[in-house]
Every structure is written in C-alpha cells, then in structure tokens.
C-alpha cells in the first residue's frame, strides 16, 4: 500500500474540513450574496470588497492575523476564552474558521452572480401572488439559482481542499486535528519521502482535474461564477 | 506613428532578459542557504564579512529538508549552512558539494522557552507538572532541533504523556513564533533565537543540557554552484575565523 494510515487520516480530515466549511459558507454566504445582489446601499461596495479580500491577500496575511487574533492576547482569543472554549489555534474549529474566511469569495461570488441573473421580475411576480419572503426564497430563488449553488459548493469545497498557507500558520501540524493533505505533502517533501509525496500529490492533481471537469462540463447555462 | 510588433518585440525581449539576468549573481556575491536557527547570527556575521572582505552575502532562510530538495533541483545556492550534519553528508555522497569543504560551523543548544517571565524553571520541571495546553516543537522529521526535542521528552519519560499537547512548527522559526505569540505556553526552540550576549533576552527558559539529546552538529559545505566562487571560499574561511566564532558563541552555540 503506497499510502500510510497517516496519509489516509490526513485525507479524511481534509474531506471533513472542506465539507463542514462548504456547509457553513452556504448558510452564511447565501444571505450575504442575496443582499449584495439586491441592495442599493452605499455599503455594497465596501462589503463586496471585504468578501473578495481573500482572493487577493496572500494566505500568509490571513494566517498571520488569525494567529494573532485567535491567540490568548487577541480579541477573538479573549472572547473564546471568556466563553470557556480556550483558544482556537491548533484546533479543528480554528481551521474551520480560517477556511470559512479563506474560501468565502468562492462561495459568495457565484451565488451573487446567480441571484443577479434572476433579476427582479420573478420576485415581483411572486410578490403579486402574495408569496412571503420565505416562500419566494424556497420556491423561486432557490430553484432558479440552482446552478449557482452547485458551482459555489464545488468551488468552496475544492478551494478549501487546496488550502495550505493558512493551515500551516495556525494549525500546528497535529494528526487528526490540523494535519490536512496539503501539509502532509509538504511534510513528506521536507522529510525527503518523495515516493509518498508523489502518491498524495498525484492524487490531488487527479482530484482537482475531476472537480474542474465536472464544473466545466456541467455548465450549460450562461450562469458564470467569476 | 505606427508600431510594428516585431520591432517592439526585440527591445522588449532584451529588456526582460536584462531584468532577469540583473538579478543573477555577480562575481563578488555569495548566495547562501541558511538554516532558520542561524538567522540572527548570520546577519551579524554578514555585516562584518562584507566590511572585511568586500564580498556581498545574500542569504535565504529555511528548513534544512526543504533546502535539500531545492539544492537537488538546481537552486542557485553556493554555500549551505545546514541545521544538521547528515544533510550535508548526504549531499556530499551524492556529489553535489565541493570535496573536502564540509566542516562543523556550530553546535546547537536546545532551550525550553516561554514568552512569560517565570513560567519555565531553571530545571525544566514545568514539563513534568504538565499544566500547559500546548508545547511547541519543530517538525522532528525535518528539523534537527525538533528531533532533539523529542529525544529530551523520551529521556524524561514524557513522550506518551505529552503526545496530545505537541504542536509542530514546520521549522524552528515557526516553533518559536507559536510561543512568542502566546498560542503555545512554551516550546523547544534554538537557544540562538532567544539568547544574546550571554543571557536570555525575554521570557523564561531552561537551557537543556547537551547530554539529553544527540549533539546538534551544524555542518556547512560549499555546493557545486560555488566551486569557482572566491566569495564562497572567503565566506567559509571567515566562518572558521575568530571573529565569526565570537559572534556564534555569543548566540549560545558551542564550537
């Protein structure tokens, strides 16, 4: 067997992290995207820019600030300590928070584009039929924006799997908690275990290709994500 | 005014090539791969070295295992200051170094350190009391100081007990960073990171006796890329000299 049990637990951990991150992002990303696609508020620009920040910032910047803010002297660290949770660096929960921030634009932007593409007309029609906002969301917006949700889920998941710098800076490389596949590959290379690095790295290339293949093959509508 | 593309391409290309090659090494520069634990001392040494010899030292800092991979894949380093002795030996047997250039430039000292004053006692009993949540070490598979740290824990019979409290930095710099930001209460670092002119600069530390782990012999070699470089030879000679030795010792290394 070319992959060790440590490799498999890294893979399992990565899948867990990416799945949880994607679910959380769909829950909090949907209202943000909906608001961004509908609002005429002055805040639209600044909020949109904040959501997109991780696209531009190097992971080292996000990792550095997370390390400081989640640490015992940081605001967030003091808050979690006050809650009795301790600090979240070196924990799976900490990685989830980091990943949610890091992958945010990859979920919000496809959703926002999908919502914008619906336009106002279907919503006005729904309103004249006396649909309440929840009805409108579940019976009109959700079905119409389905391709956007699929794209957002795939990209959010895949981008979290591809995360490295943030995890490296706040994770502490703990098996079953913070040692994800990308870090495990880095470890193998540093320890000169090239054969194992190859197996894992090769698997990542195949995974990434299949994900993108699924994404591009399924995109029949004009609903883009960028 | 019209621009023809071919007429623009040639000067454009020339400019790009000029920019790229301008970054390449001049005859009197030496590119050095430096183990992360030696960052502070080499910066002090570089200033003297440049003043005394007129050569310029360009340093890259990182983990030893990572440098090995980069060197094997054509990195432009001429001198390698490793954190161990096995990696330079390996490069030597694989024919990547100048024969006979390998020597021990420093012997590292391990320290158990906390950013908090009075947290670590002079004997390291804080480890046995086990009242902390995170103990930071460097990745033992890639960093000699991390390996030494695991040997100390084994010697104290604490390996199993502290297993779930270990957090790993990818190199000794990150192990230090976890402690200095307070995310880990304490950690095993290189003494050179917290030591200057004979004393610990901040927080509290236990200087681990050398008998508790395999010696951290740090070897240097001239790599094949530095074969004909006068600056590379000068640097190696300088590191063996009394002036560099004084600096190296002032950071807590043995010689």
Tell me the Rg of chain A in angstroms: 20 Å
User: Can you identify the CATH class of chain A?
Assistant: Mainly Alpha
Pair of chains with the largest interface and how many residues each contributes: A-B, 21 and 23 residues
Largest sheet of chain A: none
CATH superfamily of chain A: MetI-like
Give, in spatial order, the strands making up the sheet with the most strands of chain B.
Answer: 2-1-3-12-4
Order of helices and strands of chain B: HEHEHEHEEHEHHEHEHEEEEHH
**What gross morphology of chain A would you assign?**
globular
CATH topology term of the largest domain in chain B: D-Maltodextrin-Binding Protein, domain 2
Shape of chain B: elongated
Q: Unreliable runs of chain A, pLDDT <50, ≥5 residues?
A: 222-226
Mean pLDDT of chain A: 92
| Full CATH superfamily name of the largest domain in chain B | Periplasmic binding protein-like II
- What is the total domain count of chain B? 2
Major pleated sheet of chain B: 5 strands, mixed
CATH architecture label of chain A:
Orthogonal Bundle
CATH class of the largest domain in chain B: Alpha Beta
Number of strands of chain B: 12
Rg from alpha-carbon coordinates of chain B: 21 Å
Helix count of chain A? 11
The poorly predicted ranges of chain B are none
